[in-house]
């Protein structure tokens, strides 16, 4: 019985730690959501700007912001709660990500901790850059999409649907900009070498163009180029960084074990 109790204790400790970290993450999200609640009107104004600033949108409906509307008795309240929570999740991301990290970190080796910290630190600005670019191209995307509205009709868009569309664009660009972070991280842990990343560069470029053509909201070349060109640049940048890391790793391994092959040096250390 003692052995069973000893085996169960680590699991119980992990569950208690998970509960503690989850509770702290929920608290910071709720507190940050208060900011979204009190500045709800200002946030809505910024979100609606891509539509409100378009003459095509202003002439497609009855209001100044064209076709945006809220439906139902509970619609305004539900929308404010949704915007507040989304704002809280975004603003408190560094804090709840830290809680997640604090839960995972004790089970990692020193090298894994260093690589994961580097991943978190570098992933945040790249995601922010992508999300910002996604927001900036919204007017272009909306103008193109609104252009398909027949002159004899009004395009009425529920704000909940519009908000989901905005979030999809921002998340798409933000996650797409994580490409170099993932490539470099895979290289640091020994999963990919720089030459493995750069050798099939034609396939990578074709895949990036295909990805942007499939997932950008509009099919115009300008919008596709705004996403494809940075991704191509980040791809080559990640390949260059990975190549430099490989050279340092191979040199260090050769000093430790003279005559070791580059392939052996790239094998992940368990």
Secondary-structure map:
Elements: H1 2-38, H2 40-52, H3 55-58, E1 68-69, H4 75-91, H5 93-104, H6 110-136, H7 138-146, E2 157-158, H8 159-176, H9 179-188, H10 194-198, H11 201-215, H12 221-256, H13 262-265
Parallel strand pairs: 1-2
Helix pairs in contact: 1-4, 1-5, 6-8, 6-9, 9-12, 11-12
Written description of the protein model:
- GO terms for molecular function: proton motive force dependent protein transmembrane transporter activity.
- The chain crosses the membrane at residues 21-40, 83-105, 117-145, 165-189, 201-219, 225-245.
- It is a multi-pass membrane protein.
- It holds the Pfam family TatC.
- The protein is mainly alpha-helical and 270 residues long.
- The chain has one domain (14-254).
- Helix content is 77%, strand content 1%.
- The chain has helices at residues 2-38, 40-52, 55-58, 75-91, 93-104, 110-136, 138-146, 159-176, 179-188, 194-198, 201-215, 221-256, 262-265; strands spanning 68-69, 157-158.
- Strands 1-2 form a two-stranded parallel sheet.
- It is flat, with a radius of gyration of 24 Å.
